[in-house]
Amino acid sequence: MAGLKLNDFMKTKTILIAALAVIVGGAVWLFAQTGASSSGKILYYTCPMPPSVRSSEPGSCPYCGMELQAVYASDAVTNSTTTNAPSGVTNGATVGEAKPKPYPFDTCIVDGMKLGSMGDPYVFVYQGQEIKFCCASCKPVFLKDPDQYLKKIQEAAK
User: Fold this and answer.
1) pTM, 2 dp
2) What ranges do the domains of the chain cover?
3) Which of 50, 153, 51, 141 is nearest to 102 (CA)?
4) Which of 48, 87, 96, 156 has its CA 20 to 30 A from that of 65?
């Protein structure tokens, strides 16, 4: 009889652990789906390839068909260029900040493509240095090892 009660206890414990795992997994998935929207107000939607495309609603890029990505207010300083910056943002820096060091190349620092070949260059400021990419997809690559790219920029500026 004691063995039967222990067996029932183990089954109950296993079921509770499995249920807890499902609940935690669901909560993590839900947070991942909504986590981006908690980073601030959506300013507009843009295409990662030609970032000059802007829309007030989600959808597909009319040029390449890629899904438009949200640009949040908290990203505005690092996701803007002079020509298409939200109000209050100039050349990737907010008013009152020192002007960033100019970018010395006419090609993307990450993949070497000619700037402007995929629409307006994607420009942002990193540690006081203006950085230009052919598209927004190069920014995450840059951020994985920014020192490697900054070294190239500093050598070119000499």
Assistant:
1) 0.44
2) 39-157
3) 153
4) 87
